[in-house]
Design a protein that fits this description.
Elements: E1 2-4, E2 6-8, E3 11-13, E4 20-25, E5 30-36, H1 40-57, H2 62-78, H3 80-91, H4 95-112, H5 115-118, E6 123-128, E7 131-139, E8 142-146, H6 154-165, E9 169-173, H7 180-191, E10 199-201, H8 206-214, E11 218-224, H9 227-239, E12 243-247, E13 252-256, H10 262-274, E14 284-290, H11 294-306, H12 326-342, E15 345-348, E16 367-370, H13 377-380, E17 387-393, H14 396-405, E18 408-409, E19 411-415, H15 419-428, E20 433-436, E21 452-453, E22 456-457, H16 464-470, E23 472-480
C-alpha cells in the first residue's frame, strides 16, 4: 500500500503521528493509498522550519523570487499530464476538466511572476518642507493554507504562489482525501530552486487545522471549504490574532430570461451544474426560470441530462466522473431523497446508475428537479453534487429578490439578450462574482475571487490584487534629512547586489 507523507523543509517526512486516513480511487472504489495525518508536533515542526526560512527568503529581491516562480511555471507545464492524472486518480473528475483546473491554477503562478511590479509602493515628495513620504508592502511571515478536496491543484495555487512571491513562507494543509497533488507541486517547487522550508505540506485532519489556527508563529490563514468550517476558521484564527480569508459555501443561481438564447443557456447550465460532478463552489445548482420559459427550459435540460455520459475520469468519452468518496455519494443521494419527500418533481433521476466494470465506483447520474420551492432544503443547502434545481418565478424583479435573499453570495449568472436587464442585474445583485451569458464567472488570475454574505469571512478575496494585499502589510514612511556632506561621484552603472 502506497504511503503518502508530509513535505517539510525540502524533503518527504513521515511525521510522529500514527494516525492515518484512507485514499481511494473514486472510479473503482478501491483504496490506493494511506496518508499519514500530522500531529500537533508535526505542524509545529513545519511552522518552525518555515519561520527559519522566512529570515532569508523575505530579504531576497522580488526579482530573484520571481525567477524561481518562472521556473516553477515551466515545470508545471512540463509535468502537467502527470499532475492531471494525480487529480483524476484521487478526486475522480474527468481528465480535461482536471487539466483545465490545473491551467487556472497555473494562471495564478503566471500572475505571481510579475511580483516586482505588484509590490511597488507610492511616493510623495515634499509633503512638508524637505519632507518626503512613501509606502511599501512587506511580507507577513509564515502563512498557512487549508484547502478542499474538489480542486487539489487549483485552490492551493490560488494561495501559495502569491504568498511566496511576496516574500512569505507557507504551510499547506490539503484535503486528506486527495493529497498527492500538493506533494508533487512541492517537489516541483524545490526543483525550481525554492529554498528548503519556504513551502511545506502537512497532511492532516482537525488536529492539524487547529494546530495551525492556534500557532503563534502563523501570521495568516487562507481557507476554502464549507460555510460552517469557514466560520470556525475565521473565528478561531481571528481570536488568535491572525489575518484571515475564509471562503465558504455557495448556492449559485443562474437566471434564465424569456428573451435569452435558450440553447446557449442550457449548454451553459449543463457544464456549470454537472461539470466536475457538481463538486465546485462555483457550480450553478439553481436555474431560475423567469416567466413562461420554464417548460421549454426543463424540456431541453431533461434531454441533455438523460444523455449525460458518466464514467471514469480517464475515459475520453466521459463527460462526468464519480464523486470523491462513498460518504459524499451517500450524502448527495440523501439530498435527492429529501427533495422527493419535499414535493419537488424529480424530472431526471440519476440515483440508480451502474457502470459495468466499475460497480464499486462512487457514481451518481445527473439529477434534475423541477418546481423547487425556496423553503425546501434542496434549495437552501449546498448539495455539492450533480443536482440541478429549477425554480420558477414570474418576473425579473422576483428573480433578483430570490438571489439576494439567499444566505450565500458566491456566484450568479444571467442569460439574456437585453443589455439593460444585464446591466441592472449586475448592479443590483448582492453576489461577489457575476456572469452575463457566462455560466461560471470565475475571475481570471489578475482579478480576484471571492463571494459575499456567508460565502466569505474576512475582507479580502483570493489572488489578483486582493491576494497581494492579503499577503503583505502596508508600511508608510515619512523622512526628513539634515543637510550634510555630498558623496563623491560614481561612474559605474548601478546593479542589483
Amino acid at each position: 500500500m502506497n504511503s503518502i507523507e508530509h513535505f517539510i523543509d525540502g524533503k518527504i517526512t513521515k511525521g510522529s503521528s500514527k494516525k492515518t486516513s484512507k485514499v481511494f480511487n473514486p472510479a473503482t472504489g478501491e483504496q490506493t493509498a494511506e496518508v499519514n495525518l500530522a500531529s500537533k508536533a508535526d505542524v509545529e515542526l513545519a511552522v518552525q522550519k518555515a519561520k527559519k526560512a522566512f529570515l532569508d527568503w523575505s530579504r531576497k529581491p522580488p526579482a530573484q523570487r520571481a525567477r524561481v516562480i518562472f521556473k516553477f511555471k515551466e515545470l508545471i507545464e512540463k509535468n502537467s499530464d502527470e499532475i492531471t492524472k494525480l487529480i483524476v486518480s484521487e478526486h475522480g473528475k474527468v481528465f480535461e476538466d482536471a487539466k483545465g483546473s490545473l491551467t487556472r491554477g497555473l494562471e495564478v503562478v503566471e500572475f505571481a511572476c510579475g511580483i516586482p511590479h505588484l509590490l511597488k509602493g507610492e511616493f510623495t515628495e515634499n509633503v512638508g518642507t524637505d519632507v518626503d513620504s512613501w509606502s511599501i508592502r512587506q511580507p507577513l511571515g509564515v502563512c498557512a493554507g487549508i484547502t478542499p478536496f474538489n480542486f487539489p491543484a487549483m485552490v492551493p495555487m490560488w494561495m501559495f504562489p502569491i504568498a511566496i512571491a511576496c516574500g512569505n513562507t507557507f504551510v499547506l494543509k490539503p484535503s486528506e482525501k486527495d493529497p498527492s497533488c500538493s506533494i508533487k507541486l512541492a517537489q516541483l517547487f524545490k526543483e525550481a530552486g525554492l529554498p528548503d522550508g519556504v513551502f511545506n505540506v502537512i497532511n492532516g485532519d482537525k488536529e492539524a487545522v487547529d494546530a495551525l489556527l492556534t500557532n503563534k508563529d502563523v501570521a495568516a490563514i487562507s481557507f476554502v471549504g464549507s460555510t460552517p468550517i469557514a466560520k470556525y476558521i475565521y473565528e478561531t484564527a481571528a481570536k488568535n490574532e491572525k489575518r484571515v480569508q475564509a471562503l465558504g459555501g455557495a448556492k449559485n443561481h443562474c437566471v434564465v430570461m424569456p428573451d435569452c438564447d435558450l440553447d446557449q443557456a442550457v449548454n451553459g447550465l449543463m457544464g456549470a451544474a454537472y461539470g466536475s460532478a457538481g463538486e465546485r463552489c462555483m457550480a450553478q445548482s439553481v436555474a431560475v426560470a423567469v416567466g413562461k420559459i420554464g417548460d421549454q427550459l426543463v424540456k431541453k435540460l431533461e434531454k441533455k441530462v438523460q444523455s449525460l455520459k458518466v464514467g471514469p475520469g480517464l475515459d475520453k468519452n466521459s463527460e462526468m466522473g464519480p464523486l470523491v468518496t462513498k460518504e459524499h455519494l451517500e450524502k448527495v443521494l440523501k439530498y435527492v431523497d429529501i427533495g422527493v419527500k419535499e414535493g419537488a418533481k424529480l424530472a431526471v433521476d440519476g440515483r440508480n446508475i451502474k457502470l459495468q466494470g466499475y460497480e464499486k465506483g462512487f457514481y451518481i447520474g445527473g439529477c434534475l428537479f423541477d418546481h423547487v420551492d425556496k423553503k425546501m432544503r434542496i434549495y437552501k443547502e449546498e448539495i455539492f453534487g450533480p443536482v440541478l434545481s429549477v425554480v420558477r418565478v414570474k418576473d425579473f424583479d422576483s428573480a433578483v429578490n430570490l438571489v439576494n435573499e439567499h444566505e450565500f453570495g458566491n456566484g450568479t449568472s444571467i442569460y439574456t439578450r437585453d443589455g439593460d436587464v444585464g446591466r441592472t442585474f449586475a448592479s443590483k445583485i448582492k453576489i461577489g462574482m457575476v456572469g452575463i451569458n457566462i455560466p461560471i464567472p470565475v475571475p481570471v488570475a489578475y482579478h480576484s475571487f471571492g463571494g459575499w454574505k456567508r460565502s466569505l469571512f474576512g475582507d479580502q478575496h483570493m489572488h489578483g490584487p486582493e491576494g497581494v494585499r492579503f499577503y503583505t502589510k502596508l508600511k508608510t514612511i515619512t523622512s526628513k534629512w539634515p543637510s550634510g556632506l555630498r558623496s563623491d561621484p560614481e561612474f559605474v552603472m548601478p546593479v542589483m547586489k
